C-alpha cells in the first residue's frame, strides 16, 4: 500500500518557509543519516535553488547509521554544487558546535560584520531539527518529541553576536513518488502512525535487515542464522513475535505488537548501526522504477495499437459486406 502523509499545516509551513528563504543566507537541511535521500524533501531543494542559497546538509542521527553508508552519502552530496554535507548527532554538543562555522564558510560575504549571518533549519518531521535548535542555542526553545510534526510554528532567534537562526516546522511533500521511500520514512517514524499499517512497515524493514544485516537479527532475537536466511519480511515479524511472546487470547500471534517491537528496536538503535539506503541502492531503485514506467508506457502504446488495428479490421469487414 503506497504511503502518503501531508497534514494541512504543512502547506502553510511551506509558504512561510518560502517567504523566509528570501531573507536567509544559508539553509541548514537536516536529514536522517539512515535514509538521507528518502528523508530529503524535494521542495526544500526547489526553494533554495530558486533563491540560489547554499545548503549545509546535516546527516543527523549518524550514531544510528551504518558508518560505511554514511561516508558514501557524504561523498555523494559533497559533489553537488552549493552543498556541504556533514554527519553529526544533534545530541553531541561538540558536533553541533561546528555548525555556525560551517555556515560561515558557505556565506563568506557575511564575514564583514556589517550584517548578521542568517541561517534557517529545514527538514522533514522527526529528523532532529528541534534537538539541533536547542543544542545550538544552549537552551530549550523548541519542543522535542519522538513523534513527527511536533513543531508547527516558525520562529527566529538570535544565535550569539552577528547570527540569527530560524527554525521551521517539519515539512513533507504532497506526493511520495517511490513506495520504498514511504516505507523507509514510516520505519524511521517520520510519518504519523495514522497513515501506516505497522505490520506492513515492519515487513518492509525486515526484508532490508534480512538482506543486509542478518547477523543483527540473529544476535538480537536469538534466531538461527540459517532460519533467518530463509525468511521473508512477514515471516521475520512472526519470528520476532514468537521469540518475544507476542500472543493474543487463544494463543495466536499478536503481529501488531511484534511489528512494533521490530520497528522500535530499529529506531532506538538496539539492532546496531543500520542504514536503509546507500547511493547504490538508491540508484538501483530509481533505475527499476524508470524501467517499470517505460514498460508500462510501451504496454499502453501496444494496447492502443492493437485496439486501433482491431477497429480498422472491423471497418474493412463492414466495407466488404457492403460491396
How does this structure look, described?
The mean pLDDT is 88. The chain has a six-stranded mixed β-sheet with strand order 3-2-1-4-6-5, sandwiched between helices. The chain has 13 helices and six strands. With 323 residues, the protein is of the alpha/beta class. 38% of the residues are buried.
Feature tags:
globular, 323 residues, alpha/beta, 11% strand, six-stranded mixed beta sheet
Q: Can I get a quick summary?
A:
The chain is of the alpha/beta class and 323 residues long. Helix content is 50%, strand content 11%.
List the helices and strands and how they pair.
Elements: H1 9-21, E1 26-32, H2 42-50, E2 55-60, H3 67-78, E3 83-87, H4 93-96, H5 99-106, E4 117-123, H6 129-137, E5 155-158, E6 163-167, H7 179-187, H8 198-212, H9 214-221, H10 225-230, H11 233-243, H12 255-268, H13 279-322
Parallel strand pairs: 1-2, 1-4, 2-3, 4-6
Antiparallel strand pairs: 5-6
Topology order in helix (H) and strand (E) letters: HEHEHEHHEHEEHHHHHHH
- N-to-C CA distance: 56 Å
Largest beta sheet, briefly?
A: 6 strands, mixed
Uncertain runs are: none
Biggest sheet, spatial arrangement of strands: 3-2-1-4-6-5
Helix content bin: 40-55%
- Percentage of residues in DSSP E strands: 5-15%
Rg over CA atoms: 24 Å
Number of strands: 6
Number of contiguous helices: 13
Shape: globular
Amino acid at each position: 500500500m503506497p504511503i502518503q502523509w501531508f497534514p494541512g499545516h504543512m502547506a502553510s509551513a511551506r509558504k512561510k518557509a518560502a517567504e523566509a528563504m528570501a531573507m536567509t543566507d544559508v539553509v541548514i537541511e537536516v536529514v536522517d543519516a539512515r535514509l538521507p535521500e528518502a528523508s530529503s524533501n524535494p521542495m526544500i531543494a526547489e526553494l533554495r535553488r530558486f533563491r540560489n542559497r547554499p545548503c549545509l546538509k546535516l546527516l543527523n542521527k549518524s550514531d544510528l547509521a551504518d558508518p560505511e553508508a554514511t561516508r558514501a552519502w557524504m561523498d555523494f552530496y559533497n559533489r553537488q554544487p552549493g552543498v556541504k554535507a556533514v554527519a553529526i548527532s544533534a545530541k553531541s554538543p561538540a558536533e553541533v558546535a561546528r555548525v555556525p562555522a560551517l555556515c560561515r564558510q558557505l556565506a563568506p560575504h557575511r564575514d564583514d560584520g556589517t550584517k548578521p549571518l542568517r541561517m534557517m533549519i529545514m527538514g522533514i518531521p522527526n529528523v532532529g531539527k528541534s534537538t539541533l535548535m536547542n543544542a545550538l542555542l544552549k537552551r530549550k526553545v523548541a519542543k522535542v518529541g519522538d513523534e513527527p510534526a511536533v513543531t508547527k510554528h516558525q520562529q527566529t532567534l538570535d544565535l550569539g553576536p552577528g547570527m540569527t537562526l530560524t527554525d521551521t516546522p517539519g515539512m513533507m511533500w504532497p506526493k511520495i513518488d517511490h513506495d520504498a521511500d514511504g516505507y523507509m520514512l514510516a520505519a524511521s517514524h517520520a510519518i504519523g502512525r495514522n497513515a501506516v499499517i505497522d505490520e506492513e512497515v515492519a515487513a518492509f524493514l525486515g526484508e532490508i535487515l534480512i538482506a543486509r544485516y542478518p547477523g543483527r537479527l540473529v544476535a538480537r532475537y536469538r534466531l538461527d542464522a540459517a532460519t533467518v536466511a530463509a525468511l521473508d519480511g512477514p515471516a521475520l515479524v512472526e519470528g520476532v513475535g514468537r521469540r518475544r511472546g507476542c500472543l493474543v487470547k487463544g494463543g495466536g500471534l499478536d503481529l501488531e505488537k511484534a511489528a512494533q517491537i521490530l520497528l522500535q528496536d530499529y529506531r532506538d538503535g538496539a539492532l546496531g548501526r543500520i542504514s536503509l539506503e546507500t547511493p547504490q541502492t538508491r540508484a538501483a531503485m530509481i533505475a527499476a522504477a524508470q524501467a517499470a514506467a517505460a514498460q508500462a508506457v510501451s504496454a499502453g502504446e501496444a494496447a492502443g495499437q492493437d485496439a486501433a488495428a482491431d477497429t480498422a479490421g472491423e471497418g474493412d469487414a463492414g466495407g466488404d459486406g457492403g460491396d
